[in-house]
What we know:
This protein has helices at 2-32, 41-65, 95-98, 233-247, 258-261, 266-285, 289-294, 298-303, 306-313, and strands at residues 66-72, 77-84, 90-93, 103-107, 113-121, 128-131, 154-159, 167-182, 185-193, 205-208, 214-221, 228-232, 316-321, 325-329, 334-348, 351-366, 369-385. The protein has 389 residues and is an alpha+beta fold.
Amino acid sequence: MKNRKFILPVLLTVLFLFIGAAGVFLMYQKWDGRSLELKNTLAHQVEEQQDTVNLKSIIHQSQKNVVQVEALDKWNEKIGSGFLYNDKGDIITNAHVVEEAETIYVKTANAQTYTAALVGKGDNLDIAVIRVPQLANQSPAILDTSFEAELGDEILAVGSPLGFQNSVTLGIISGLNRSFEIDGFDYENAYQISAQINHGNSGGPLINRASGKVIAVNSAGMDDGSMGFSIPMEQVIDQAKQWSEQADKKNLDYESAIANAQELDPDKLKEDAKYMINYFFESISIRDFINAYTLLGSDWQTETSYQQFREDYIYIVDTKTSEMDIQFNEDNNRAEVNMEVKHEERSSPDKVFTRVYHYRFEAGYENDQVRLLKGKRELISEEEKNSEE
């Protein structure tokens, strides 16, 4: 009898425990299957910011392989654009830019100037290929030769309109299958774009905003700047490759105007120095420290290793430059540049500083190319700001 008195409470206890465990299990299953909806404004902000960074990255990367093309004959000079498309140093441009040219040279994004040889030129197709051996084995533009364009696709046109190198224009594809003739060149099924194509843009790449790939060659524009026209890459690539392959068996003509092009001109040196310094800070802003380091002269690189250089700039998250004061020093044939630069620097996750520096650069020729030969910076002011701003 005594044992029977204990059996009932034990059974009841086990039953209650089983019921409780089952209830917890069912509640867990219900919660696990329910999605929680939270309004994450921070994620939205990061997404918007990332989109901006992507656009800057596309522009910066495209500028590395876009060049300004200058074609000279006995009487005049033509200025156009082009882009590196393979590892042989071959550049695609427009035929009308280089036709009848006695000498061709190109200017790269980091203000280097090289002589180019004509590899091939279309008779009816407004496309040409030129070669610069010094650009061999460099990263070429990424091409999309099977792009199927649709009205409204966002694009970027990169080139040197009116001689302003590496200018970028945003727009959309505003028309398809446009066919016409200009100066003996037949345009068939060209893209019509809202981005302006001015003198100097010809031969530059048309880039798909979504992928960052080159989809066409900017070739013609209206006089009023209302629209432009681009030749799709699928019409270009086979002929360009054929010319490039055949060129290996030819003696390419590199008749040079480099001596004249780089004859010391104080105004030109000051212009190149300004361009180089803007490109330097653009590379820093996009965190392309390797590219920024390559702009330095050999003595500066000897004094400062890449690791040291990177450490000086790695904390910068935003940069604003002021107007440059540029003077030509006749004693050493260098351009001396003074300017103030404001950096936002994040030294830790919760500490952001606004620092203003005075920069002093010296730019000049080294091995016939413009380089930043010297550089110093001095801290002028510093202010801590709220990292959540």
